[in-house]
Amino acid sequence: MSTLFPLLAIDVGNTSTVLGLADEHLRLTHTWRVRTNRDLLPDDLAVQLHSLLSLTGARLPASAVLSSVAPPVGQNYQLALRQHFGLEALEVSAETLPQVSIELDQPGSVGADRLCNMFGAEEYLTSHEYGVVVDFGTSTNFDVVGRGHRFLGGVLATGAQVSADALFSRAAKLPRIALEAPQSAIGRNTVHALQSGLVYGYAEMVDGLLRRIRRELPGDAVAIATGGFARTIQGICREIDHYDETLTLRGMTLLWSHQQRVLGRLD
Ligand SMILES: Nc1ncnc2c1ncn2[C@@H]1O[C@H](COP(=O)(O)OP(=O)(O)O)[C@@H](O)[C@H]1O
Ligand SMILES: CC(C)(COP(=O)(O)O)[C@@H](O)C(=O)NCCC(=O)O
Ligand SMILES: [K+]
C-alpha cells in the first residue's frame, strides 16, 4: 500500500528532536536533527518541518509516527501534522502498543523512546537472546530487551553533558570543556583532568553497568550504543558491540509497521 509512504518518524528527546523519512521498504532516505525547543508552537514546527523537507527535495509524508518524552513538544507536533499536513501521527506509548511484553512494575511509565529502542534492537537479536541499548541522550538509558518484543527493564543514569554542567555550575575555578577524550587517563592540566573524569569516567560507568546487567541475564546479550553522545564514547567503552546512530528512528518505523500489520493495514 504505497499510499502510506513516505513515512515520517519524529523522535522528540529532551535535548534534540530527530526526524526521518522512510520509503516503502522502511529505509530511511532522509534524517534531520534539530534542537528540541519547548517555545515553538504548532505553526512554527510546521514551518520548520516544511523547510527541512523542501531543503532536501523530499516528498511530503503520507503517514507519521511520533515518540515524545517532552510532552508539550509532542502535542505541538501532533497539531502541526494535523493542521498543516493532514496527518494523524501514531503516538508511541505502552498503552497503544499491541503484542509486546513490558515486564515492568508500571508499564505505562516507560519512556516512548525506550519502546522505540526495543524495536530498533530487534535486528541484533538473531544470534543473541537479549539486547541492551545504551542511549546516550540527556539521560543515559540502558534499555534491556529480549527477543520477541520483551522490555525487561534497565538503568537511567545522569547524561554526560548534564553531569558536566552540574560540576561546572558548582566549582568556580573549573572551565567549561568539550566532552572529548584526552590522550591519557592521567591529566597533566585542568582541561585534560576534567576530560579524563568526564569521558573515561563515564565510559567505565557504562562498562561496569553493562557487565552487571550481563551477569543478571540468563543468556548472552548484545550491547548497542545510540544517541547524541554515543559517537564520542562508543569507541572507548569495551562492553559495547555496535554503534547505530539511527537505531531509535528505525525502531520507530518498525514499531509503526508492526502496528499497521496488527491492524491489517499493511501486509
Ligand atoms: N553532534 C553531537 N556530537 C557530540 N555530542 C553530541 C552531539 N549532539 C548531542 N551531543 C551530546 O549528546 C547528549 C544529548 O544527546 P541527544 O541525543 O541530543 O539527547 P536527547 O535524546 O535527550 O534529546 C549531550 O550530552 C550532548 O552533549
Ligand atoms: C529517561 C528519559 C528522560 C530519557 O530521555 P532523553 O534522555 O532521551 O531525552 C525518558 O525516556 C523518560 O522520560 N522516561 C520515563 C521514565 C522511564 O522510562 O522509566
Ligand atoms: K533520545
UniProtKB/TrEMBL annotation:
Entry EC no(s): 2.7.1.33
BP GO annotations: coenzyme A biosynthetic process
Cofactor binding note of this UniProt entry: A monovalent cation. Ammonium or potassium.
Main location: cytoplasm
Active site: 113 (proton acceptor)
PANTHER family: TYPE III PANTOTHENATE KINASE
Family designation: Belongs to the type III pantothenate kinase family.
The protein's name: Type III pantothenate kinase
Gene that produces this protein: coaX
